[in-house]
Amino acid sequence: LYTILQLVILAGIGFVLKRFAGWQQDFFQRLSRFLVTYALPLYLFTGIARTKLDSLSGAGLFPLFALAILGVGLGVSLLLFSLVRFRAGDRRAGVALATFGNAAYLPLSIIAIFQLTVPKLADRLGGNYPALYVGAFLLTFSPLLWSAGNLILTRRSGRIRVTQIVTPPFIGVAAGFIVVITGLGPLTMNQQLPLYPVFRALEMLGNVTFPMILVCLGAMIADLRFGSTIRKEMVAMAVLVSGVRFLFLPALFFAAFYLFRLSEHLSAAQLWVLYLEVTAPPATNLSVMAGSAGVNEHNTAFTLLVTYVAYMVILPFELLLFLSLPGIVPPGAI
Question: How far apart are the C-alpha atoms of 1 and 307, rounded to whole Å?
């Protein structure tokens, strides 16, 4: 409950500042650009650089998990949206929103806040490993979001720029992996060497990511515009997207957990990150793509608003369901 309250309060601050306090959109755009370009990559870099070489084997599964989740989400979305009458552009928007989840900001924010709220489970659910696992997930997810996701949503293939694939978070993840693989990690964390204060300064800068990104998320929700008329197609799209993101994919996770006995093959930290990726609401970057292309803006904005509000409501129940799985929480831990 405390985890959810912190998420709601931080996002609520951004919402209030944008909607009622008159803070300009330019401020939040600059702050968001700083977080995406510098703070988040630094968080991912320092978090991954702190891990040990033998932990990379556990991270190697997450690019495959990303492909599997996107593949299943795309298949189910295409099926569902073919059963309901939509205009072609609306159908594409719905499929993109149901397929691509918020793979970085929300999972990492929940992980960071949850570890502070329930410190007894911090080591059990991974310590620094979640940054490693989310980073590995992004190595596959991020390029596909900006290429395939953009194509599905806008139907504009165009020429994919290198900067769309090699994004700052991607660079942060890759740099972190290089430090681990080359064995440079101990050099950056040895207090007797000059690299240590540099590493710690970068780490402190990266740690501002999550409270600020939630404030920016609240401001983004406050700025969503979907016109004065809510059409039934918009409601239908929001319902179908919510069904895929919050019902079908989580149900598939629980089915796989028991059917394949995942707790015997994956650690609690791996399952924790995988679960947060499966249950995340749609990626907010889809709104940026729709706005830049000038297509499907209203439907995308309305669906994002509905799904993020719904996510805040159902998240406590999702967390309780996960923590109730056998093998996740040791007896007496909470």
Answer: 19
Region label for 283, one of left (φ > 0), alpha (ψ between -120 and 50) or beta (otherwise)? beta
Handedness of CA 115, 116, 121, 122 (dihedral sign): positive
**Looking at residues 144-153, what average pLDDT do you find?**
88
Q: What value does the mean pLDDT take over residues 65-75?
A: 97
Give exposure, 61-74, as e/b (b: 16+ Cβ within 10 Å): bbeebbebbbebbb
Give the tokens for residue 300: 């995308």
Q: Is 192 exposed, middle or buried (0-12, 13-18, 19+ CB in 10 A)?
A: exposed
Chain position carrying tokens 């988040």:
40
Assigned token pair, 267? 């650690």
Distance (Å, whole) CA 176 – CA 83? 44
Tell me which residue of 280, 31, 311, 294 sits closest to 137, measured CA to CA: 280
For residues 131 and 173, what is the distance between their CA atoms, to the nearest angstrom? Answer: 9
CA distance 262 to 271: 8
CA angle centred on 162, ends 303 and 164, rounded to 5°:
15
Extract the tokens encoding 158.
């165009």
**pTM of the shown model:** 0.89
Q: Which of 155, 151, 142, 149 is nearest to 96 (CA)?
A: 149
Q: Is 166 helix (H, G, I), strand (E, B) or coil?
A: coil
- Tens of pLDDT, residue by residue over 302-332, are 898 899 989 989 998 999 999 999 988 876 6
CA 118/CA 9 separation, integer angstroms: 18
Q: Which residues pair with 282 in a beta bridge?
A: 101
Say which residue, 187 or 201, is predicted with more confidence: 201
Phi, psi (degrees; rounded to nearest 5) at 101: -95, 175
Is pLDDT at 60 greater than 60 in this prediction? yes
**Amino acid in the structure at residue 290:** A
CA end-to-end span of the chain, whole Å?
Answer: 13
Please answer whether residues 153 and 292 qualify as being in contact, where contact means their C-beta atoms are separated by less than 8 angstroms.
no
Q: 84, 236 in Cβ contact below 8 A?
A: yes
Look at residue 83 and tell me whether its pLDDT is greater than 70: yes
